[in-house]
Amino acid sequence: MSTPMLNRMHMNGYDVLSVNNGPWRVCTQGDRLASFGSKEEALAYAAALPGYKKRAMRVQSHTGS
């Protein structure tokens, strides 16, 4: 049984990662934005995107009558 190998970096607020020497992916917490064959391509793509900052969750209050 082998252990999965994870290569992970951060660029401009995005995760740039590869699992088991597979394609490099550019992701946010909930979305995969793109996949690339090389780390350099993925990092260039992440660098070209606008800076990503995770948004705070808004809590709505219910006021009853």
Q: What would you note in describing this structure?
A:
This protein has 65 residues and is of the alpha+beta class. The protein has a domain at 6-48. The protein has one helix at 39-48; strands at 6-11, 14-19, 24-27, 32-36. A four-stranded antiparallel beta sheet has the order 1-2-3-4, covered by helices on one side. The mean pLDDT is 85.
Which regions have little confidence, pLDDT < 50, spanning 5+ residues? none
Strand content: 25-35%
Question: How much is the average pLDDT?
Answer: 85
For the largest beta-sheet, the strand count, sense and barrel status come to: 4 strands, antiparallel
Distance between the termini: 60 Å
Major sheet: order of its strands?
1-2-3-4
Q: Treating each run of at least 4 consecutive H or I residues as one helix, how many helices?
A: 1
Helix content: 10-25%
Gross morphology is flat
Spatial extent as radius of gyration: 17 Å
Structural class: alpha+beta
Number of strands: 4
Task: Give a quick rundown of the structure.
This protein is an alpha+beta fold and 65 residues long.
Layout of helices and strands:
Elements lengths: L5 E6 L2 E6 L4 E4 L4 E5 L2 H10 L17
Antiparallel strand pairs: 1-2, 2-3, 3-4
Distinctive features:
4-stranded antiparallel β-sheet; DUF2188 domain-containing protein; 65 residues; 1 helix; single chain; alpha+beta
